[in-house]
Design goal:
Blueprint (H helix, E strand, L loop, with lengths): L2 E5 L8 H10 L4 E5 L2 H5 L8 H10 L3 E6 L9 H21 L3 E4 L10 H21 L3 E5 L8 H11 L4 E6 L2 H4 L4 H11 L3 E6 L1 E5 L2 E5 L8 H10 L5 E4 L7 H17 L2
Parallel strand pairs: 1-2, 1-10, 2-3, 3-4, 4-5, 5-6, 6-7, 7-10
Antiparallel strand pairs: 8-9
Length: 269
């Protein structure tokens, strides 16, 4: 069965023991820890702190199926690309120490005077290098549909196919296709395209308005989340479905309602 939880980033500024306690009280059973723990939770993620973090998670009855890594492979300089690969691999090494199997990755975002065609060879090279080293660590990379450089389901699948690594898939952020301007019809196309490659899921919901796409708690918007969860279940997906509430109302209340919806939806599958 899929594991319902949340991403720790929303609790930025909160110590991890408190994050774990609050998430568990909401009914969460897993947590994706943001790889930049020193910035967001006040401690580094390294071999000296990992045993204590694992103890805190166990005490809160939370699994840690994934970490949020960072990288920007949309580069035109080999040295800059190497630095970004190393940034991502630093989180992969922490994941290996924690026996965590999935690390979220980014493609990168748009930059002035740089086209996708210019950076695409660097995207492919970066992911091939990162995947090769991550494989040795027992880690799978999950590209998140993030930003505006490549935020299209079929285009992301083309990239993954070109990299051609067994340990590369997607961290599907359910709200980001709509946030990038895709219509309800196109979002379903995006979801269907990436489904075979999903290794982790960040759950957002929202509504289309004249001003764009506005985020609301999961189950209270217009995204086909129940359909998506059923499709994942039909494919045998048993990974995390982590709330990542980014709406305008209180984060904790929005997260609590999102987790309640997800628990019910997963139990009904």
């Amino acid at each position: 069965m899929m594991k319902v939880g949340a991403v720790s980033l929303g609790w930025s500024g909160t110590p991890l023991p408190q994050v774990f306690e609050e998430l568990s009280a909401m009914g969460g059973r897993c947590v994706e820890i943001n790889g930049n723990t020193e910035r967001h939770h006040g401690l580094p993620l390294d071999q000296t702190t990992i045993p204590q973090i694992l103890t805190w998670a166990k005490e809160a009855r939370l699994a840690i199926p994934s970490l949020s890594g960072y990288c920007d492979f949309a580069q035109t300089d080999a040295d800059a690309l190497d630095a970004e690969v190393e940034r991502l691999l630093s989180t992969c090494r922490a994941a290996a120490l924690m026996n965590v199997g999935v690390v979220r990755a980014f493609v990168g975002d748009v930059k002035p005077n740089i086209t996708l065609a210019q950076v695409r060879p660097f995207l492919v090279a970066g992911f091939r290098q990162a995947c090769a080293e991550a494989a040795d660590l027992g880690v799978t990379l999950g590209i998140e549909n993030h930003g505006r450089l490549i935020n299209d389901g079929p285009a992301l699948v083309e990239l993954v196919d070109e990299v051609n690594a067994d340990n590369l898939g997607f961290t599907l952020d359910t709200g980001n296709f709509a946030w990038a301007g895709h219509s309800p019809e196109q979002v379903r196309v995006d979801f269907a395209a990436v489904l075979p490659h999903v290794v982790s899921v960040h759950i957002k919901d929202g509504v289309w308005t004249a001003d764009g796409f506005g985020f609301v708690p999961a189950g209270e918007g217009e995204l086909p989340l129940a359909w998506l969860l059923q499709q994942l279940a039909d494919r045998g997906y048993e990974g995390p479905v982590c709330s990542e509430f980014e709406g305008s109302e209180d984060f904790r209340e929005g997260t609590r309602r999102s987790i309640a919806f997800l628990r019910s939806a997963v139990q009904d599958l």
